[in-house]
Amino acid sequence: MKFRYIAGAVALALSLAACGTSQSATTATESATGSAAESADTVLKVGASPVPHAEILNFVKQNLAPAAGLKLEVVEFTDYVQPNVQLDEGQLSANFFQHKPYLDDFNASKGTKLTFVTPVHLEPLGLYSKKITSVSALAAGATVAVPNDATNLGRALKLLADNGLVKLKDGVGTAATERDVVDNPKKLQFKPLEAAQLPRSLEDVDAAVINGNYAIEAGLKPASQALVLEKTEGNPYVNGLVVKAGHEKDANIVTLGKLLQDQKVKDFIKQKYEGSVIPAQ
Q1: Which sign, positive or negative, has the C-alpha torsion 78, 151, 229, 231?
Q2: Quick check: bond before 185 cis, omega within 30?
Q3: Residues 111, 85 contacting (CB under 8 angstroms)
């Protein structure tokens, strides 16, 4: 009787062990299947300025992404800082709003490791005014608003220098600050402002150097309304797709990069922005 009890207990233990093994295998299989499904359903979350970046991304989302098996979520930002902060923190998969000189300066000053992946378009910087219709009409002592971030300030001062309004220290180029202005014949007064505020400043200043995306968003037409416009040839300020370092070759990022350089996107940019936004070559 004792032996029969022991044998029964052993048989029961073996049966339970087999059942547990089977259940573990089933759970592992379900987990693997779930991971594969999650990977297939991954949404690429991309931060962008509303105009033209988000508009371009939404064109891709509606017209090209479905056929490429790409799911996009476009998150709009009205400043130049949070899209990089949230990308660095992992809240975004990528962003699309900036040029490489701005990105390089941001990485250096903030200690981030973000990487420029794909060039998409150029937005020429322009000088605008609601008070005058030509550069020559800019009066002595006039106030000119300029972007207050380092890269776009240097870019703005170079635009003014290229059009004879100021002279910069030799060799300083787009790294210029107000201290690098060595000749200012009209005694212009510079008013640094956050880039997003520049269009609104036109009511209060004589002229303003405005980034292309904010000019377009404010209803300005750079190609026809700018008093002077940045040259496009050899221009380093091409806007493009940016990711956190190490993700440049992620399958979805590679796909999005190719779609952003598709001829249909270039045609969309040319038709919609009429020369105010120029596709990257």
Answers
A1: negative
A2: no
A3: no
Structure tokens at 171: 């060799």
Nearest by Cα to 206 from 229, 185, 190: 190
- Asked if 164 contacts 188 with a C-beta cutoff of 8 angstroms, the reply is no
Distance CA(153)–CA(174), nearest Å, equals: 8
**Is 241 strand, coil or helix?**
strand
pLDDT digits (tens, 9 = 90+) for 41-100: 589 999 999 999 999 999 999 999 999 999 999 999 999 999 999 999 999 999 999 999
- The span from the CA of 222 to the CA of 231, in Å, is 12
Q: Are strands 143-147 and 207-210 parallel, antiparallel or unpaired?
A: parallel
* Distance between start and end Cα atoms, the chain: 89
169 burial type by CB count under 10 A (0-12 exposed, 13-18 middle, 19+ buried): middle
pTM for the model stands at: 0.78
Residues 70 and 44 sit within 8 Å (Cβ to Cβ):
yes
Instruction: Quote the Cα angle for 53-56-212, to 5°.
Output: 40
CB 95 within 8 A of CB 47: yes
Adjacency order of strands within the sheet including 71-76: 71-76, 43-48, 94-99, 238-244, 114-122, 278-279
- Number of helices (H) and strands (E), helices first, in the chain? 11, 13
